[in-house]
Amino acid sequence: MNLGEAQIALLSEEEKRAKAQNLKSRGNKFYQAKKHERAIEFYTKALLFQEDPVFYSNRAACYVALGDYETTVQDCDSALRLNKKYLKALLRRAQAYENLGQLQGSLYDFISACILDDFKNSVAANGAERVLKKLAETEAKQRIE
Predict the structure, then answer these.
(1) Closest Cα to residue 95, out of 120, 54, 118, 126?
(2) Measured between alpha carbons, how far is 106 from 112 in angstroms, rounded to an integer?
(3) Residues 27, 102: Cα–Cα separation, whole Å
(4) Cys-Cys with 106: which of 41, 85, 98, 132 at CB 3.0–4.6 Å?
(5) From CA 69, how far away is CA 52, in angstroms rounded?
(6) How far apart are CA 126 and CA 84, in angstroms?
(7) CB atoms within 10 A of CB 21
(8) Are 64 and 96 in contact (CB under 8 A)?
């Protein structure tokens, strides 16, 4: 399935969507097998056929597993550009920000996720609480010094 941009442009929207979904499914199989680099390849190919927030978010999950948090943030940004209320992308970005030490961004995303999910998401709530504690500790240490 190595089509060039010109060949992809000639496909109908239905054909593009079908090819993208097939590539995503293949990526999911590699992700489940913990072959994250291979999964990334398939999600990236899927994005050539259809720009979909799920493909970006799935690829971001691979980058999280590989410890590449900056690229995780970039893919989550792309997913959220397409769907501002995409909870998985918001949570992945929050976790990536936390791992990068960008606690303000992390807290913002965790709280946004809490609000979007009516405070029913334990991952978002626990993340917000954890990051808020880290921020409070940092603030307290600075004031003491």
Answers:
(1) 126
(2) 10
(3) 29
(4) 98
(5) 20
(6) 22
(7) 16
(8) yes
